[in-house]
Here is the input.
Amino acid sequence: MMQTGDALAAFRMAERLFGIAETLQYAEPTVWATLSTLEDVERIRPVLPPGAWLDSGEGAEAKWCHPGELPADASELAALLPLSLHLEDAVPFLSFEADLAAVVGSVPAGIRWHLGAWPATPTQAWRSTKYSGVELAFNCRELWGDPEDGHMLSVCVGQNDLQRAEWLAAQVGLRVLGPPVQSL
Here is the structure.
């Protein structure tokens, strides 16, 4: 739908798509990021909302904490890298996302907003509730994808609902850029 080198412009376009949603009553974000350097952590930590948490490692070696609980000592913090960013369920819609887009830099990250419903379209008399959402992948082409230059904004619709995706894109002056990608 939109591929750009400007993370904040991609976020602003996502906001325009939110304005089309039939309802945002149950809208909520899901976020992920991989923080690989001390600079990444220091740049992104201040914009994280309450309810953010970070983990390091896997299995029995895994450690997790809230951003305010990270070690102050740079060498202790470096030993935890890379850190994966996650959110608890109760993070309010649009409480931190613009700030994250402004500071994401080269960090591979993404946000998926689960929305209430996409409206009916002029050629589709039904609204879409089950798969309504917006995804913004920073420094990758799709959420949880391999790092890549640029940021990708996508709409989430039902599996065989390309017509709705095309209609949504047109409402904000964009077009579908390629074939559907299966995500969350």
